[in-house]
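User: I've been trying to design a sequence by hand for this structure and keep getting stuck. Would you show me what you'd pick, starting by listing the structure so we're on the same page?

Assistant: Good idea, let's start from the same input. This is the structure you sent:
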């Protein structure tokens, strides 16, 4: 059974950092493009970052560029999202998703598998 599991969310003060993990079971993450998305209450799900399985290229939403970093650890079959300088507007449920075609994209409809999400709350 193909499954993605996110972890690492929590409560953090503004300016703080968190590292989210996206672990896969049943398939090899390195064969898939991986995207991180988030959804705040009352808002649509939006793309945060993604990484290609073809050439390793990475992309970031303008709102997180320079603060978030996406990376892979193939040995652990895990993709990470390092989040620094967190702000209250980063508060959301964060999801990872896998696209079998390997092309990094922020389009939610392109992704085949989704995790259950992890809550990130930035508040003082």
């Amino acid at each position: 059974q193909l499954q993605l599991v996110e972890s690492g969310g929590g409560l953090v003060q503004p300016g703080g950092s968190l590292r989210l993990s996206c672990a896969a079971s049943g398939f090899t993450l390195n064969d898939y493009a991986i995207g991180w998305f988030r959804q705040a209450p009352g808002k649509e799900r939006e793309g945060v970052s993604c990484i290609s399985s073809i050439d390793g290229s990475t992309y970031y939403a303008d709102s997180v560029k320079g603060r978030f970093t996406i990376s892979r650890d193939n040995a652990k079959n895990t993709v990470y999202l390092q989040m620094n300088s967190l702000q209250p507007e980063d508060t959301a449920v964060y999801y990872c998703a896998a696209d079998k075609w390997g092309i990094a994209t922020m389009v939610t409809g392109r992704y085949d598998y989704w995790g259950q999400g992890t809550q990130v709350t930035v508040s003082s």
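That's my pick for every position. To get oriented when you compare it with your attempt: The mean pLDDT is 96. The first strand starts at residue 3 and ends at 7.
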